[in-house]
Amino acid sequence: MYLKNKRVKGMDTCVYSFTGHYGSGKTEAAVNFAMKLKRQGRNTALIDLDIVNPFFRSADARELLETLGIRTEIPLYANTNVDVPALTGVMGALIRDEAYDVVLDVGGDDLGAKALGRYREDILSRKKHLQFFVMNPNRPFTKDLPSASRIYDEIEAASGMRCDALVGNTNL
Known about the structure:
By secondary structure, the chain is of the alpha/beta class. It contains 6 helices and 6 strands. The protein has helices at 26-39, 62-67, 89-96, 109-118, 120-124, 145-159, and strands spanning 15-20, 44-49, 71-73, 101-106, 129-135, 165-168.
């Protein structure tokens, strides 16, 4: 993923949401983006909002992220044998906290975007927020413009927010 970020210390913080289809690379993009912000000297937090797929989530990178000084919030019961992870009240407070650049790793498709929609008002209360649509054209349900557009529209509808940028991710 190539995303040029010219932000410098002292600028307003932002909420960055990474959405997309299952298996598009949202988690890897979100984790690496959080690490990039931290390398730029930003006060960074990553929130794992993926309550859809228990197999690929940013909670798996929690130890590494916290070692780097990135605050990490994960669903209750993530990486346990409990089937249904639950979002915490701390997540909304952290999203509203202007002291942090907050990176949101969202679950796949419209089902995952519903969890993002739960925090819509918290996100919109911030001065800056960007919602990315991560797309991998090598995946079966986003292989062409009509199918990718359908997923894109479903995510916007479920989250209640527009996607601001497309992240092309074919390097999986």
